[in-house]
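RETRY 2/3 - previous attempt timed out on the joint model. Re-submitting the same 605-residue input unchanged.
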Amino acid sequence: MKSPILAFLQDLHARYAPLTEGKVADYIPELSKANPNWFGICIATRDGQLYEVGDTRQRFTIQSISKALSYGLALEDRGEDHVLSRIGVEPSGEAFNAISLKPGSGTPFNPMINAGAIATCGQVLPKDGESRIQRIAAYLSRCAGETLEVDEEVYRSESETGHRNRAIGWMLRNFGIVDEDPHDILETYFQQCSLKVTCADLAVMAATLANQGINPTTGERAIAQEYVDNVLGVMATCGMYDWSGEWIYRVGLPAKSGVGGGIMAVLPGQLGIGVFSPPLDAQGNSVRGIKVCMDLARELALHLFNPSASPQPALRLGYNASQVVSRRRLPPAASQAVRRYGERIRVLELQGPLIFSTFEPVVRTLVRQAAYCQQVVLNFKHVVSADPVSLRLLSQIRTQLAASGVTLFCCHVGRFNRALLSNGFDEKAIFADTDSALEACENSLLGEVLGQDWRLPEPVPLPGCLLFRECNQDDLKALDQHMDERTYATGSIIIERGSQADQLFVLTAGSVEICLPTEGNRKRQRLDVLSASMSFGEMAFIEEAPRSADVVALEPVTCRILSRGALAVLETQCPGLTTKLLTQLVRQLSSRLRIANNEVSALRG
Ligand code: GLN
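RETRY 2/3 succeeded.
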């Protein structure tokens, strides 16, 4: 099935293919051989998907588009301060080949005009046995994810006729912007401009810039992250020659064009665009390229300064322990205490990228919660990235909360583990999942409000078991005689899902997990954890249906077991016993349903 995105690009292509305005560059004789009908459009997404229409695989020379990327390499080689001392970043308003320097400083206005680009070539260092052009070609190749080669004819043609650029080279030498005979630098510049690319390459290069310097098709880092904003900055202000102001006003994307007919445009963080069509306007920009980018920006709402969406706040959901508790079923008194004081435990589920604007609502919530919370759990399961700013804020708020007696925990931290540890979180404050974090929080809350001995002493005698609450002495005596006792080692499966059920289990010592197998049996999903005094296996027992889940011993376990046959015998001895047991079971099930309803309503937000 054809993607509507591709259909849209095909429409766009058809819209401007008939346009005959503009003139193929001929001041470099070899460029005049380009076919004016060549026309390609390509969008590359940040995850490496390409949408291509028209002549997206036709090779042509990159020309001035190379200037943006070699500026990145110069910054990596020399650092920002040094490069800025030689080449400015002000739009010049002059033609790309102007023979001019900034009055006062004597530096080229910016790296996107020829003077600045030639100076930029001089900043690139021959290194590790590689010449300047080899390093530039390798750098641009990493950005494109393809090996780029010099078009020797275009290079020769440009070198033979590039008298104006030579004049600029010598002017730079005169003003001390380049420190050596400019010959080698000029040849490097001509070769760099003669690197062969395709429209698809331009889109991938743009997507690499959009993707913080990592080429989305190869996964390789091509541009140091710290200079991506510098490169995009000069593209935004100076990338379209003396039409740069109009361009950023109308299209709103950092871009760079070349006299070969290419344009590369970047929507930072999102996508890259490549357009190729050789006929140029008076400024040297591709006529069709500009039309296509204007329509793309308008019709796909890409203008940088009118973002159609802002990132979602990082706060996905918040609840407290009186609404949602751990999977562990607590004895009635403890369960009541958690419901009553549960507001002191708060869980915040985070999502998306953590950057200043998305994380600010989380900070706001934490500041507000500090007054009535004691423990806060941050769930990172749906967090996709965390920038240094959000991590710093998190670390600061953690320290401040600790000072006012509130402990901050994290769970589901995955690949953020290291970042959290190096931002002040203790390993003990990091839990695998919400459940284990909640359990720990509940333990400390219960210790505080009920004292350390809120757990029942084991083994729990039959009268202490919840199921037998309605029973009198005679009932209990009879039950004791008719119920087998069985012990299980840690990890053993007490009940298997799907098996036939005619027994009800009463746990007198140890704890068990009720769980479902997930992900092709590799993991278990925990439904419940039960401890001594509780019973299990009652659902299938009542429904006379197969077991709905597995029950596994979490530690050495002792159970008393009531079979359906034994209950029938007991009923003749103690009339009404079945009713008593069923009444109690219904109570337990309905209180569990109440908890589940509470939880569902909190989690639906
Ligand atoms: N190599 C070309 C020149 O210096 C590049 C110009 C351009 O693409 N604007 O003239």
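Residues 315-449 form a domain with the Transcription Regulator spoIIAA fold (CATH 3.30.750.24). Closing ticket.
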